[in-house]
Amino acid sequence: MGRPGYPAEFRRRVLDLLADGRSVASIAHDLEISDQTIYTWRRQDRIDRGEQPGLTTAEKGELFAAKRRPCPELTPTPLPRRP
Fold first, then answer.
1. Residues 76/77/80/81 CA torsion (nearest 10 deg)
2. CA distance 58 to 64
3. Which residue has the higher pLDDT, 82 or 32?
4. What angle do CA 11, 15, 20 make, to 5 degrees?
């Protein structure tokens, strides 16, 4: 889904550091990643655990896959040829 990013294990470790009490700014500085990236990961983790409303990672994947499938109602039908 989307462009390639950080591995899931790396994201999990960053979230573990947050859970241990480290600040977003210090983690971002030490790992040389954007603090906004960490905030996004934390928000999505909270959604996945049901602590915050929103689409879970699985639901986002399903929605992305559905958007990529062609819609039969919108597919043009060929016009009949004249004899």
1. 50
2. 10
3. 32
4. 145
Burial degree of 74 (CB within 10 A; 0-12, 13-18, 19+): exposed
Report d(CA 35, CA 25) in Å as an integer.
6
Tell me how far CA of residue 26 lies from CA of 18, 34, 35, 40, 79, in angstroms: 10, 11, 9, 16, 63
pLDDT of residue 74: 73
19 and 46 Cβ atoms separated by less than 8 Å: no
H helices of the chain, where? 8-19, 24-31, 35-48, 57-68
- For residue 79, the surrounding DSSP H or E stretch is none
pLDDT 10s digits, 22-60: 999 999 999 999 999 999 999 999 999 999 999 999 999
**65 pLDDT higher than 80:** yes
